[in-house]
Amino acid sequence: MSAPVCPCGSGRPYEACCEPYHLGAAAPTAEALMRSRYSSFALGLAPYLLRTWHPETRPAELDLDDGMTWRALQLVDVVRGGADDAEGVVEFRASFRDASGAVGRLHERSRFARVDGRWTYVDGDVLD
Fold first, then answer.
1. 87: how many CB neighbours lie within 10 A of its CB?
2. What tens digit of pLDDT does each residue of 64-83 get?
3. Model confidence over 104-123: pLDDT tens digits?
4. Which DSSP letter does residue 62 get?
5. For position 62, what pLDDT does the model report?
6. Residues in domain YchJ-like middle NTF2-like (predicted)?
7. CA 120 to mean position of chain CA atoms
8. Which residues contact 77 (CB under 8 A, 6 or more apart)?
């Protein structure tokens, strides 16, 4: 039996992709953090989302919609956000199905910054 594939769309097993970040390892790039955050939405891991949110923009709490099913992630653009950068941008499209069965898509250009050596999600502009 093969290991479950990571929700982020990498095609890699979850245990070798986003799970280490969910368990506390630092994401090496803004893209890796963005993928792990998408996976945490798909898996309902609100504490991880809050932990990886920039302290200046982090909400006090986060309630995930249990009826939302995140179906696919498509990366559109990555600007900086590498191992030697302090900031980066990742643009993505994420498709979902809500509790009523309606399908939709979130298209966002997200900003990331390092805080104490770890990538954090700052904010994003919803596009479309």
1. 14
2. 999 999 999 999 999 999 99
3. 999 999 999 999 999 999 99
4. -
5. 94
6. 29-124
7. 10
8. 89, 90, 91, 109
Cβ distance 29 to 89 under 8 Å?
no
Domain ranges of the chain: 14-127
As a whole number of angstroms, the distance between CA 69 and CA 6 comes to 15
Q: Which amino acid is at 79?
A: V
Distance from first CA to last CA of the chain, Å, rounded?
40
Backbone angles phi, psi at 45, to 5 degrees: -100, 70
This prediction has a pTM of: 0.95
**Cα 71 vs. chain centroid, distance in angstroms?**
13
Our measurement of the distance from residue 6's CA atom to the centroid of its chain's CA atoms, rounded to an integer in Å, reads: 12
Handedness of CA 51, 54, 55, 56 (dihedral sign): negative
